[in-house]
């Protein structure tokens, strides 16, 4: 398949940008899914030792990928501990 892509790129050089951007989008999507699977608090890989990982988050932990206006280090806790 790679040989076919390279032969098409040699015949039509304007398609190189199409192949590059399509590959970059696929790589970005895979990295985002991997980020969600590894770092999101709703995902539990170890059910025996940590069945509810979202309970261990404090109020100033940042778990979003990108936060526009929130400074998580200065948030105060609202509610009780479980």
From TrEMBL:
Similarity section: Belongs to the complex IV NDUFA4 subunit family.
Membrane topology: Single-pass membrane protein
Gene name of this polypeptide: LOC107522194
Protein name: Cytochrome c oxidase subunit NDUFA4
Chief place of localization: mitochondrion
Membrane-spanning segments: 15-39
Alphabetical keyword list: Electron transport, Membrane, Mitochondrion, Mitochondrion inner membrane, Respiratory chain, Transmembrane, Transmembrane helix, Transport
Subcellular location: Mitochondrion inner membrane
Upper taxonomic lineage: Eukaryota, Metazoa, Chordata, Craniata, Vertebrata
